[in-house]
Amino acid sequence: MNTRISTLILAATILGTLPLLAQQRRLSPHETISSVIDGNRVTIVYGRPHTVKPGTTEVRKIWGGLVPYGKVWRLGADEATLLITQKPIEMGGTTIPAGAHTLFMLPEESGTSKLIVNKQLGQWGLQYNEGEDLARIDLQKDATDSKVDQFTMAIAKGSSGGGVLKLMWENTQFSVPFTVQK
Questions:
Q1: Model confidence over 87-111: pLDDT tens digits?
Q2: CA 34, CA 174: separation in Å to the nearest integer?
Q3: Cβ atoms of residues 98 and 65 within 8 Å
Q4: Smallest Cα–Cα separation from 137: which of 167, 158, 99?
């Protein structure tokens, strides 16, 4: 009987510490950004990897290197990036319902990259299930004015209303406009 109780206590302890162990494996700082666009709060939680390889002075090539073309990328580091919107938003002709969604990216060398909005939550790394995709949305690719050493996401107000989601790293910016559904 004591062996069973000890085994149950050990199993409960291990299961209880798994989330802490996952957080300890984080190699990049994390950030939460939030903005109110047309009365709707949009929040993004993501990992911010650096251009320099952790623990070294080695500068990594990002696009087509660390982030390979033609393969789904978690859009940040560690856990998959989380998008939370209080109201439905329209992005690239697709309605993204209110609630939480996971963001991925499919970068292409030609520049016709896609933002992937996925319904599955809580993935670590590239635990990606294409069957849970809500949408694949075209991203606009532009050069940045200056080098961006740490992956950065931003939510800005659009010049003609609505908002713009921006993804910046190395010498490239990807963006997509969105509007809030009333």
A1: 999 999 999 999 999 999 999 998 7
A2: 18
A3: no
A4: 167
